[in-house]
Amino acid sequence: MRRCGLLLVLAIAFCLPARAVIIDSGDGTGNTSAPTPDPGWTQVGFRGGLNAVYLGYGWVITAAHVGAGPIAINGTTYPDVPGSTVGMLHSGSTYSDLIAYRIHPYPRGLAALEIPTATPAVGANVVMIGWGLSRGAATQWNSGPTTYGGWNWGGLDEKRWGTNRVGAVLGFFEPETNVTDVSIGSFTTRSLVADFTESAPNHEGVVAVGDSGGAFFVKVGTVWKLGGISYALGPHVGQPASTSLYGNVTYASDLAYYRAQILAAARPCADGVDNDSDGPRDYPADPGCTWVGDLSELPDCGDGIDNDGDGAIDLADGFCGSPSDLREAPDADSDGVVDDEDDCASAPDFSQLDSDQDGYGNACDADFDDNGVVGLSDYLTLGQAFGKTSASSGWNPEIDSNGDGVIGLADFLGFGGSFGRAPGPSGLACAGSVPCP
Q1: pTM for the whole structure
Q2: Are 415 and 401 in contact (CB under 8 A)?
Q3: Could you say which DSSP state residue 270 is in?
């Protein structure tokens, strides 16, 4: 990417609830379906005209100024759980522009997103995703001796992705940086930065009005992870409204910096902390952790929470025989997902991965041709795919029963046990229809 030796605004002139990822490639209207490889296109949902990202296990993350509320994911709207919002502290008692909250019910078949353990370095590849406006006509703006090219904002509210890289020069005589602290109103946020560069390769992108709460995926090694949540645009001083000009900077909260707080809220049994001070940490070492998405490390029948949402708590719940019971609801396969919400009720399926969205999880759905029974044609399909990985041409995620990215022995053995049978069983009432739920 070519660097622009421009003075960028450190104090952001506006924190705009964004509507678009503006891209520099083609006519600006492309990239409205998932990129390849896909870092998490479906997990980016529509939240009150803005954006939020589904983290997994019933938790959503977005910018604090977007706020908690219902989120539409893949055409289905999921209500938020009142009182579940957790704000992420920047330092001391100062909060960042970042929150996480629960939704219930939550979508099945979407893998939990990974968060980097360290702040991405300058040069790390970026894919940003958000709902918004298409690119308008080309424009130029003269500021003293400098002319900046770029684009006006157009119409059409659409979900779009663009590419970039971590890094921006934020002032004269300053080196290129990957991160900075930004204060807007009462929030101070540790922020990843990426500038909008002319003639950059791929699909150079920048946020615009309406993109707040969108995803800022970063490639860490060979793996795409959710590195940030977009929340602000840094324009040039005096820049005309409703434009994206070269040298503008996208700001996204650095989730690696807030990772411990996010995991403590959204995945307390996978946060590396002994939250209940009994010695063991996390699932499966801690007997109080029934799965990585547990809301506490206490047994469900002794934690004071109505975990199954039936109105009864702990011993008052008919499914609780003693305070040490791990669940308040039937869970035949002990995967931490109650039977009536489990897309594979008889096979442990912690991720609830359902690639074809028919209500039967990959772990118990070898009916690849969807004719209602696992038979010869499904066997032949498995044979043709055997040995392929997620990076292979013609990869079919439906055949990957355990979601490890490889069609291998485990998938073959699982297929043998289902031959001649119908897929499932599933506890979802919509099982057999697409999409479910």
Answers
A1: 0.73
A2: yes
A3: G
